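Whether sequence alone determines local backbone shape is best considered at the level of individual chains. Part of our work consisted of pairing the sequence of a single chain with a tokenised description of its backbone. This step matters because it turns folding into a mapping between discrete strings. For completeness, the protein is quoted in full, as a sequence line and a line of structure tokens:

_____
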Amino acid sequence: MERINPAELSRPAGFSHAVTATGGRLVFLAGQTALDGDGKVVGDDLPAQFETALSNLLTALRAAGGAPEHLARVTVYATDVAAYRSHAAELGRIWRRLAGRDYPAMAVIGAVRLWDEQAMVELDGFAVLP
């Protein structure tokens, strides 16, 4: 995979403008919220739920034989985009600790609510394995 960030576009922070991939195996990752092993939403605030949701996404990716650097695209659904923006620095630190600095193409989309009513954030995406 190659991460592409053209000089003509604003400098990306926590994402890549484009990701190209050749060959390999595609892994499509279902949306993950802050569900624990018993199916209960955990975490009282957005950063705590983001950490669990990202951990769940990475667990699914690893089970498919991948690693964080194989993520090509991640979409974040947030029930409060303003809160997501206000916690951006902390969420970035969580991302780097769990997934490193190989950022996929990303988007944050506001959602009225998620499948799990208590969930504040959900992540899905796809990866390209070598």
Observations:
- The first helix runs from residue 46 to 63.
